Amino acid sequence: MADSQQRFDVLVIGAGPAGMAAAVRAAEFGVRVGIVDDNPTCGGQIWRGSEVEHGQEAMRWSEQVRNADVSKLYGMRVFHQPEAGVLLAEGRDDLCELRYTSLVLATGARERFLPFPGWTLPNVMGAGGLQAMVKSGLPIRGKRVVVAGTGPLLLAVAAYLRKMGAEIPMICEQAPWSRLARFGIGLLAYREKITQAWQLKKQLAGIPFAANCWPLTAHGGSAVESVTISRNGKTEVIPCDYLACGFHLVPNVELQSLLGCKVSDGYVQVDDLQQTSVKGLFCAGEPTGIGGVELALIEGQIAGLAAVGQATGARKLFDERRKARRFARMLDRTFRLRPELRDLPSAETIVCRCEDVVHSRLREHRSWRAAKLQTRCGMGPCQGRVCGPATQFLFQWNPDSVRPPVFPVRVESLSKVVS
Ligand SMILES: Cc1cc2nc3c(=O)[nH]c(=O)nc-3n(C[C@H](O)[C@H](O)[C@H](O)COP(=O)(O)OP(=O)(O)OC[C@H]3O[C@@H](n4cnc5c(N)ncnc54)[C@H](O)[C@@H]3O)c2cc1C
Asked: How many angstroms is it from 279 CA to the middle of ligand 1?
């Protein structure tokens, strides 16, 4: 049995921009609203840490969440649905049962990692992961950080690290110039994005940016010391203290799958009001499409309004959402992974780093399930969150059904679930 129970008319899982917007809008209608996040504060991936540092919009939404009549359940992670309308969340030292009438799932996304020789060396990190560590106090001043992979996150991370005193020898983007040029032209339809792009250009002035470029091997002893990259078909070695590497984002859809929501091509399927295939369950933000903070805020508001039956108010945001979704499709087209990246791992490259499963062992299998059963790939602490998307790209394997707990939890919490 859980240590405590709470009941809400609208429960929001995830306090990133999408969840914050959903909770604020729903709370305007006098219903009981709760918001859960496994971080100690709201803000999600983009507004993590000091809200002042993230600008006006972050401050405005954070203030609205603070002032809204919403129960804030931060530092709690939802991991199981024991019955319809009930979720279990684990806190630092307790287990909470959360009952809801409507649910908004705003669980965000994570970075996609691809294995290549040397990617498990210390100081080879996710680009967003390194940014988060620097925000939490990791000293980066004077360190040489090569930023590599794909997607706009690389630019945001490089700009942040430079601001914090890092030296960026190169940004390596796997997408070809032709796609980046089309993306640039497409941006002209988005005034606010042009402003952001212009600011980034200024912040990154003087840093070499290479398209058609990706990491081949990270070298080093106790930590990374250099990286060999492929650039326009030629190889180069760049000395570095860190390699910040991410291949765009993968939506977090495990909880939605557990709850029976239809997921297709990796994204949760929603109707116009952000309702999933399960009645009363809404989804907003990155799980429905990787579209950035603007789309997350619009979808969050629509989901929050729809969850309290305010369809008319929600419809007023449809035009804005249509435009933001066009941008999401542009991101998808531009930063699609090139097939050459499938050849990055050698036979000995570890693909599942929790269970030390190497590439040659995986390629003997035909499905994710078979590989899991025979090699334990995806059965370690990350539960396939890192190697799942990698094997999906490398071998076109599709993940099987999701089983609880969707996150690793304490044995004590599990024992309370079954007692
Ligand atoms: C590592 C990383 C760094 C990023 N950095 C930037 C950046 O610098 N600039 C930029 O423009 N964009 C950045 N992005 C993209 C940015 O996150 C999105 O554009 C936008 O914030 C998406 O908002 P969201 O609300 O959909 O998701 P998120 O902001 O990801 O919020 C989802 C929240 O849900 C929580 N959560 C998920 N599952 C559970 C659960 N079961 N129980 C409890 N809580 C849960 C997560 O911890 C998270 O706090 C980053 C993305 C990632 C993955």
From this structure: 25
